[in-house]
Amino acid sequence: MELENREDFRTWHEMFDLLCQRAGYSGNAELASRYCSRIGKTGRDDFEAVQKNLRNWRLGRHLPLRRNLVLLADLLRVQEDRELLRRWNALYTAARGEVPQADLVADASGEATATAVSPSASPSHLRRLAPWAALALGITVGGGLAWSAFDEHRQFKRLPMIGYDARVKMVVGETRLIHGDRGDCGGEPPDWYYILPQVPPSALGIFSDGGIARKMDNGCNAVVRARAVRFTARTAGSEELKLLGDYMKIVVTDRGHPRTE
Fold this sequence. Notes:
Blueprint: H1 12-22, H2 29-39, H3 44-59, H4 66-75, H5 82-95, H6 101-109, H7 123-158, E1 161-162, E2 167-171, E3 175-182, H8 192-195, E4 205-217, E5 222-233, E6 237-243, E7 246-253
Parallel strand pairs: 1-4, 2-7
Antiparallel strand pairs: 3-5, 4-5, 6-7
Helix pairs in contact: 1-5, 2-3, 5-6
């Protein structure tokens, strides 16, 4: 697949949208259908969730998880063009905030650099200036980066902590975060419409988007960001269901009237 002016793109979603259009997907329905077919999802809810994800990805509102990125690249045949694939991956990595934008430009084009250098400057002159330039950059930028990292960590620690319990006991009227789903280890959590197909209906209450939370993940061996599932109990009773692929029993009692089993 030929794509002119690859280096003109500065965001992943711009490139993704153009690639969709070049492949004949002016809308999202046909691509969502192919996407669902590849992941083995056939339900209407699955299709609508994928279609909404595609719309958000093309508009730059959200980023796909890495496992979804690989599938999108395959569907759009990105890997058939080596330079296109490199730019695709570089822009995605930059959008996730994993590398500085300057590093992205140098990696993608092989020509651009973070700072302009006079053509007459000799290599020895540059070597003498390099330590001082690095020190100056560290003084001006390092403080900002350190504070940004500290603030991000502080915001992360404020997120509610959730876990998985195979037996959840609540009372009518209570609302609680009872489960959650993570993205890649250290990556962005999935959006609500992505996990919605794995959220069943309940006769006892209502499941809803619980927002971003923290959870301990043994696969990552770390506490990671996750999309929380909130449950609001409406009716007394008990039921067994499968939430986010895990079996769970929910027991709801009237206030002041514990249920015995």
